[in-house]
Every structure is written in structure tokens, then in C-alpha cells.
Specification:
By secondary structure, the chain is an all-alpha fold. It is built from five helices and no strands. It has one domain. Helix 2 packs antiparallel against helix 3, helix 2 runs parallel beside helix 4 and helix 3 runs antiparallel to helix 4. The model has no long low-confidence stretch (mean pLDDT 82).
């Protein structure tokens, strides 16, 4: 078995609690990256970080921790209407 397959198998067996914590940490990291580097990124870079943030946010919602994800975003000053706009684009 290749190393990447073994790694994937371990990831799929993570407990719900671990998956949740990883998703919340991932969301927090993307928010921090945008806050720290937004002034240095070109338009494509900003879009990439925001799309990554949205993906992490969706993962949090799917894992049942949408309220905690909303708290992370609101503490970072991300307006909820920005997420609603991203969601509208993603679902069409």
C-alpha cells in the first residue's frame, strides 16, 4: 500500500470530535491568513483565500458546528452577508 493511501485511510477513520476540531482550526487559519496577508495578495490570491475560508466554513456547518464557525468569523470581522453571497454563488 502506498504512503498516500495509508494516510487517506487514517484520515477517514478520524473521530467526529477530531474532524470537528480540525475543521474549526482550518477555518481559523484561513481567516488569519487573509487578515495577515490580504494587503500583499493580488486579486487571485484574495479569491483563493476567501474560497478556502468558505470551504472550511461549509465543512464546519456539515459537521454540526456552524454556530462556532460563525463566532470565529464574527470575531474576525467577516460580515455574514459576505458568506451568504459566497454560498449563493457556490450553490448555483
Amino acid at each position: 500500500m502506498s504512503t498516500s493511501n495509508a494516510h487517506r485511510r487514517r484520515l477517514t477513520t478520524l473521530s467526529q470530535r477530531v474532524q470537528t476540531e480540525l475543521a474549526l482550526q482550518r477555518l481559523g487559519r484561513f481567516v488569519a491568513l487573509e487578515r495577515e496577508y490580504a494587503g500583499q495578495l493580488n486579486e487571485a490570491g484574495v479569491r483563493l483565500v476567501r474560497a478556502s475560508t468558505f470551504s472550511a466554513y461549509c465543512d464546519c456547518r456539515d459537521l454540526g458546528v456552524g454556530k462556532r464557525a460563525d463566532q470565529i468569523l464574527s470575531q474576525a470581522g467577516v460580515p455574514s452577508r459576505a458568506l451568504e453571497a459566497l454560498e449563493a454563488v457556490a450553490t448555483h
